[in-house]
Design a protein that fits this description.
The complex is a heterodimer of chains A (269) and B (333).
Chain A: H1 2-32, H2 50-58, H3 61-92, H4 98-109, H5 117-127, H6 133-137, H7 144-155, H8 159-167, H9 172-183, H10 185-201, H11 204-209, H12 218-225, H13 234-266
Helix pairs in contact in A: 1-13, 2-13, 3-7, 3-10, 4-7, 10-13, 12-13
Chain B: E1 2-11, E2 14-24, E3 29-33, H1 40-48, E4 55-60, E5 63-64, E6 76-78, H2 90-100, H3 105-119, H4 134-147, E7 152-156, H5 164-181, E8 184-189, H6 192-198, E9 201-206, E10 209-214, H7 216-221, H8 226-231, E11 238-242, E12 245-249, E13 255-270, E14 274-280, E15 290-296, E16 306-310, E17 317-320
Parallel strand pairs in B: 3-8, 3-9, 6-7, 7-8
Antiparallel strand pairs in B: 1-2, 1-4, 4-5, 9-10, 11-12, 12-17, 13-14, 13-16, 14-15
The chains are: A mainly alpha (269), B alpha+beta (333).
Chain lengths: 269, 333
């Protein structure tokens, strides 16, 4: 009974894995072969890098990549900073209205960002930040998820450890920096991965708030590049997609083990 | 050097620590002894600055430190859980406070070397706490408290997570270290053996209040209250109602001799070197009145056997049954 169950769960895991990875495999196939092989499979199909060259030439990928990196980094750094302070305060400081503040943060988890697109656009337009890096990043500079996650992690730091650090002469920010942050390192790693992949792939909001190459990230650039009016060339689009996700994919493959471990540690699924 | 005056701590409507008064002299080893929940740990935390007293003052070397932050009091502290930073190596753990206080590098190195020699951690400096045994962790915690060269070192049940054998070893070691360095120590424990064997002075607490302060032999020979009498010594002192007074006599002072008080054996508990005999000494018709006595060697009494017990008058203590405090004639100093 249990061996059957194990076999079944293993099989379904493989099945789901294959379904998940198929589009990626297809992208690889289409990108490395001439356009006439885009929709037919043949082992003898010649390999080529032509699609990458034409994709790179047709769209300012270099600029898009730079934009995406700047925006994702801006968001990540600011999220880590804000969430650390907020998470610490909610976990360890006794202040009036702490429960209410936490409830507000948790409520925010339930609000879909898409609902706020129009309102956010108006705000950013008032601030004169349309089509800027800050404009793309501003709605995400703090993360309710990150605050909650770090609060939970900070709550598990033993009181005696904090006491020891205080007796040894640390207080305030240095206490957070030297004790809480290192102890929560796996959580930071896991959260960073979630944040990076979300904002690297974020599409709708950047599409709304960017107008030019100056701030347009890869996802939006790709969409314009592959828009039907410019003619659908699957091979070139696949090559462009690979360029877009390449850095993220490489990052994940290199740090795979650490990532999975920190996810287990941080309890994110 | 440390003076605690009228210190109280209230949680909600409960006085966890109620009017604490005691002093620690230079180089003195003071044990804060009491059952769990008696307020001894809270008292230590107030001295460390980790809890804020509601009333009273705490003075260290003539300076009022009552509301000073814990980092500004220049104390060393050893915690029950050791409280080592798991992400730092042994060396970094020991130097943690010196780095936080920005002590010069060569001075750090000098102190590290001497402290590591003292506690014997030479080959483990680069290891992480997770790779050490309980006893080694305890040594690191000790080293971290000593390296600050603070005059007063606070210890919160530092040995309670160790096994019995190691606990005995560390007890001797901590005491030797304290005497060698001339440190003043406040040592919180619920273990009377630790307090009796290590301390110069014992502060016995119960229910947030001090029951008695004195030398270990004072607490044993001249308990001020019934609580003190029963907390120190194992098995605890027998308390026998006698009219409007309570008589106290320790099990080890009761002998089985002819011509004494008649009693009836209830059970025997063989401990190796001696046997704890439980006997009923109520006279006929009275309610049961049980005493324990320590009989050297292996006692071969059977249940219901009649015996006769006796103790010398100088071993007898008297307490008032209303206040439960000692009414012995105190030796005049």
């Amino acid at each position: 009974m249990s061996t059957w169950f194990q076999l079944l769960s293993k099989l379904s895991a493989y099945l789901l894995g294959i379904i998940w990875v198929l589009p990626l495999l297809y992208a690889f196939w289409a990108a490395f072969h001439p356009p006439e092989y885009a929709t037919q499979f043949s082992l003898t199909a010649p390999l080529t890098l032509e699609n990458f060259v034409s994709a790179w030439d047709q769209a300012p990928f270099y600029r898009y990549m730079l934009n995406t990196i700047v925006i994702t980094t801006l968001i990540l750094v600011s999220q880590l900073f804000v969430c650390t302070l907020a998470g610490y305060a909610l976990a360890r400081e006794n202040f009036f209205g702490r429960g209410f503040a936490l409830a507000l943060v948790l409520t925010q988890l339930m609000v879909m960002p898409e609902v706020l697109i129009v309102e956010n656009y108006k705000t950013l337009s008032d601030l004169g930040q349309i089509d800027t890096y800050l404009g793309v990043g501003l709605p995400y500079l703090a993360s309710a998820f990150g605050i909650f996650l770090l609060r939970q992690t900070f709550k598990t730091v033993p009181q005696e450890l904090e006491d020891a650090a205080r007796v040894e002469g640390l207080s305030g920010l240095s206490l957070i920096w030297k004790v809480f942050v290192p102890l929560a390192f796996p959580t930071y790693l896991a959260f960073s991965l979630v944040s990076i992949s979300y904002h690297w792939n974020n599409f709708l909001w950047p599409l709304v708030v960017t107008n030019t190459v100056a701030s347009r990230p890869l996802t939006v650039g790709m969409a314009i590049f592959g828009a039907p009016e410019s003619g659908v060339d699957w091979s070139v689009i696949s090559a462009g997609t690979l360029i877009a996700i390449g850095p993220l994919l490489a990052l994940f493959l290199v740090f795979q083990r650490q990532f999975i471990q920190s996810f287990m540690h941080a309890g994110i699924k | 050097m440390l003076k605690v005056e009228g210190v109280s701590r209230i949680f909600g409507d409960k006085k966890v620590v109620d009017d604490l008064n005691f002093a620690v002299e230079d180089g003195e080893f003071v044990a804060l002894l009491g059952p769990s929940g008696c307020g001894k740990s809270t008292s230590l935390k107030m001295i460390a600055g980790l809890e804020d007293p509601n009333t009273g003052t705490i003075e260290l070397d003539g300076k009022d430190i009552t509301h000073l932050g814990p980092g500004q009091r220049k104390l060393g502290m050893v915690f029950q859980s050791y409280a080592l930073f798991p992400h730092l190596s042994v060396k970094e753990n020991i130097l943690f406070g010196l780095k936080a206080r920005k002590v010069q590098k060569d001075e750090q190195q000098k102190r590290l070397t001497s402290v590591v020699d003292l506690v014997g951690l030479g080959e483990h400096l680069e290891k992480k706490p997770g790779q050490l045994s309980g006893g080694q962790c305890q040594r690191v915690a000790l080293a971290r408290a000593i390296v600050s060269e603070a005059n007063l070192c606070l210890m919160d049940e530092p040995l309670s997570n160790l096994d019995a054998k190691l606990r005995n070893e560390m007890r001797t070691e901590i005491r030797a270290l304290q005497q060698r360095l001339g440190m003043s120590v406040i040592y919180v424990t619920h273990d009377q053996v630790e307090a009796m064997s290590m301390a110069d002075k014992i502060v016995l607490m119960n229910d947030g209040r001090i029951e008695q302060i004195g030398l270990p032999e004072d607490l044993y020979n001249r308990p001020a209250t019934v609580f003190a009498a029963q907390f120190i010594g194992s098995p605890p002192m027998n308390i026998i109602p006698a009219g409007d007074k309570l008589l106290g006599v320790r099990p080890e002072h009761i002998r089985i001799e002819d011509g004494g008080m008649p009693g009836r054996v209830i059970s025997c508990d063989y401990h190796g070197a001696d046997t704890i005999v439980l006997a009923d000494i109520s006279s006929n018709g009275d309610t049961e009145s049980l005493v324990k006595l320590r009989y050297p060697g292996h006692a071969l009494f059977t249940a219901e056997q009649n015996i006769s017990i006796h103790w010398k008058p100088e071993f007898e203590h008297q307490f008032s049954s209303s206040t439960r405090t000692s009414i012995d004639a105190q030796p005049t100093n």
